[in-house]
């Protein structure tokens, strides 16, 4: 493990992606801790030409800046180590949270789909005509003359053809 050394804060470059992850509350907590006990964990940087690029320790760096420090304790790592730094998504607690959120989303979508299908089913049931027996005196004979019985609308093409044949119509 490389030995920690002091680096000038103004020479440390913070990549834009990392800047977006700053949490002011965390910076304040670390700054308060640094006032009481000092910096316990060094940051990690790698040398890129004449500047230092931050690998790990953004909140510690920001806390030192907030306290007005001009230097920070850190370790110089090689570019290979910097590239193999575990990404946020690879950390177990973050991965567990991502899996949990994906599962909750899936459950919510399934619940919404079930509610939508139930609402559609209830809507169909409400629009269906109640099925009752024909009134007394109405004949069920489909071969009877068309004027004496009410025609039913055929549900399939073969029903329609049969109805046309029985009534003498053309098809």
Search tags:
171 residues, alpha/beta, five-stranded mixed sheet, 6 helices, 5 strands
Description:
By secondary structure, this protein is an alpha/beta fold. 46% of the residues lie in helices and 14% in strands. The chain has 6 helices and 5 strands. The chain has helices at 16-19, 24-37, 58-66, 79-83, 92-127, 157-167, and strands at residues 5-8, 12-13, 43-48, 51-56, 71-76. Strand 3 (43-48) and strand 4 form a beta hairpin. The chain is rod-shaped.
In short:
This protein is α/β, with parallel strands linked by helices.
**Oligomeric description of these chains:** single chain
Give the termini distance in whole angstroms. Answer: 92 Å
The DSSP helix count reads: 6
Strand order of the largest sheet: 1-5-3-4-2
Indicate the low-confidence ranges by residue numbers.
Answer: none
- Would you count the extended β strands for me? 5
Specify the biggest β-sheet.
5 strands, mixed
- SSE class: alpha/beta
What is the typical, i.e. mean, pLDDT? 78
User: Helical percent range?
Assistant: 40-55%
What radius of gyration results from the CA coordinates? Answer: 38 Å
**Strand-residue proportion:** 5-15%
Pattern of helices and strands: EEHHEEHEHHH
> Looking at the structure, what is the overall shape?
rod-shaped
């Amino acid at each position: 493990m490389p030995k920690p050394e002091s680096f000038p804060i103004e020479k440390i470059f913070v990549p834009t992606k990392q800047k977006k992850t700053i949490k002011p509350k965390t910076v304040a907590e670390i700054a308060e801790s640094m006032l009481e006990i000092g910096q316990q964990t060094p940051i990690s940087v790698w040398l890129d030409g004449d500047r230092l690029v931050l690998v790990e320790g953004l909140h510690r760096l920001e806390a030192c800046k907030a306290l007005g420090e001009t230097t920070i304790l850190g370790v110089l790592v090689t570019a290979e180590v910097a590239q193999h730094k575990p990404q946020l998504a690879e950390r177990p607690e973050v991965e567990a949270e991502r899996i949990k959120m994906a599962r909750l989303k899936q459950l919510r979508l399934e619940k919404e789909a079930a509610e939508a299908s139930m609402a559609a089913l209830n809507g169909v049931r409400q629009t269906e005509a109640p099925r009752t027996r024909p009134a007394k005196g109405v004949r069920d004979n489909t071969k009877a003359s068309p004027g004496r019985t009410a025609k039913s609308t055929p549900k399939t093409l073969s029903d329609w053809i049969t109805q046309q044949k029985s009534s003498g119509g053309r098809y």
